[in-house]
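Most newcomers find our protein records easier to grasp once they have seen one. To make this concrete, we reproduce a full record directly below:

===
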Amino acid sequence: MSGVERVRVICPLNDGDERTLADDVLDGLTRPFKELSPKHFYDEVGGELFDQICDLPEYYPTRAERSIFETRAEEIVAASQMAELVELGSGTAAKTMILIDQAAATGTLKRYVPFDVTEAMVRRCCEICGDRFEDAEIIGVVGDFERHLDYIPAPIDGEPRLVALLGGTIGNFVPGSRRQLLRSIASLLRPGIDHLLLGTDLVKDVATIEAAYNDSAGVTAAFNRNVLNVINRDLDADFDVEAFEHVAFYDRGREWIEMRLRASRAMHVKINAIPLEVDFASGEELRTEVSAKFTPQRLADDLCAAGLTLEKTWTDSEGQFALSLSSPTL
């Protein structure tokens, strides 16, 4: 590696960046209809709860996406010719490991870049992958992919790069923000050589979708409420977490799931670190996430608006989830 460490982590966060939560809370809780960004779900507890959600019988997206990797990894590697994989929101790379293994087995893998907002998770992922893929460079990046894409290393000269955004994460953005993010990702890709691998949850029967966000064990409810624990801990707030009810429903017009927290009583909340004081009426709702579901046309339109051309799409056997491969429009 010419004196450069084969396994390393880039952490661009500084004192100013740490105000992201405070800024998002100040912005979201002073709107006429209160909302929070779902990016703040994923502290250590939230990450563990989401791992539990992925194993729930009602939660189909993870199983469906994994099944595509299990059956199509060889095709994806062949179609993308990936020598470098940049994974946005990598987490533990549990599903993507199937793809990385395939690239390593074919001898094309030269670099893996896990990118996630949680530093401990990035470091752990780099440690595991560094041991597992001894011939590849592993460069972790700790950051928010809405703000820190510039810290991703330049692509390897002449080697195909595959950027992956999986798990249906793109659905957490409303249409305008979604297309803006896709345009930012497209800027990482070189025409004629690089690709985007995008995971999208598909439109299907409402009962199946709503059950995935209203599990009988109450894990999703705990995951949803935990964002208030994050604010209490990191911003010295006094939310009564258990006084908020989990709400999740499918909006048929927008074709997305909305998750909300509903105040079970009137309350006055102090967020001392900002500082901010907020009133909630009994029954008032705070939106914590949207999760858009896609039709083939919506997917193609969003990619086109971002300057990308859809090349291939793979779905699971039940047609619940899709992985798509696109490239910069020439």
Summary: The mean pLDDT is 94. The domain at 7-12+56-205+293-328 is CATH 3.40.50.150 (Rossmann fold). The longest strand covers residues 244-251.
